[in-house]
Amino acid sequence: MQASELGQLRRFIIKLGTSLHSYGAPAHRLENLLEEVTHTLGIEGVFLVTPTAMHFLFREKDSDEEYNHIERVQPNLFDLNRLARTHELVDAVLAKQIDLSQARAQLEQIKTMPDPYPRWLMLLAWGVLSASFALVCGAQWQEIIAASAAGCFAYLLVLLSERSKHLEEMLEPLTALLIAFMVSAATALGAKLNVPIVVLAGVIAYIPGLVMTIGLRELAARHVLSGTVRIMDAGMTVFKLYFGAMFGLALAAIWWTTPQIPLQVATVSIWSYLAVFGLSLSLLIIFKISWRDAPWGLLAGGIAYLSASLGAEVFELSLAGLIGALVVGIYANAYSVLKNRPTSIVLLPGIVLLVPGSKMYIGLNNFVTGESILANTMNSAQILLAFMAIVAGLMFANLILPPKRRH
Questions:
Q1: Measuring CA to CA, which of 6, 203, 304, 339 is 20 to 30 A from 158?
Q2: Which pTM does this prediction carry?
């Protein structure tokens, strides 16, 4: 291979890796994909991917010369539309339908392409997500409306943070602080709201339950560094959200007294299924899944909820996620085989309905204050068991029906 060709290939691999990382590809799958691509294109590559850094090592076959490259990256929100488009580009490169210079140009085009949904629809999705979560928790209608307004407010702060680096660093605790303060003020003015439930529903899009699950999955795949970093980052995010909310309530208590509303017991009803539909639909938009994949992602949410409900009847509640993850994992792998699309497109919308992310926040509140936000909640051991059950379900799903592609 000529030096110019080798340099062009390395630049493409580096650009491909950083692009997939920014769209939310897990470390263990991203490393496998990069190794597969480099091997197919005629060189050897070794990769170390973490949420904040990527290390690339290239060597030609039957050569002792090596090329190292380190790239500083940042954890980002999931963008499954761009992730799918990038995988399609990889297929075209491996099939030699386009050359590497064209591929690099298309990677840039994918990066700058418009989002599949306008911002007003994204705002609506954040509101529906918070309202649906409040409904799942057994909230009353006034609390559901307040939660929806809080979710919309949280997204407006996300838009502002795109223009301010300082606001981006303080986004989670500041959002929780402001929502807690405003909800407390609304109750002081006469609104009958369960403040902890409305605050939790308002920041539910920030709760890193999915990040925690991915981190545990990476640990299970023996990607220790990346998995540990993700888990620590998820834990820190929960702490920032919780203590931001506590500070907001403490500030509000200086001026007024927040009335205590009795805890609600969440029960399964027709409204629960409506809430699951709202959660699934809003997650499709938040994850930026394209319209052509949206029906499959929406179906994944329903499959995850129904199979987890069945699992709760067979096993104890903390193990229900194993059945849910197993079924939705097999469904996602079948989708990958039949459609030749990334499993993440339908896997993430289903798994996120199973992860007990909100239970992390509730468990922290129980530990600090000794009080429970919800009447039916889990202790710390049950929360950990629920996370590990989901990871086990995904591993068994890959054993029963491996995905067509390693991503």
A1: 304
A2: 0.86
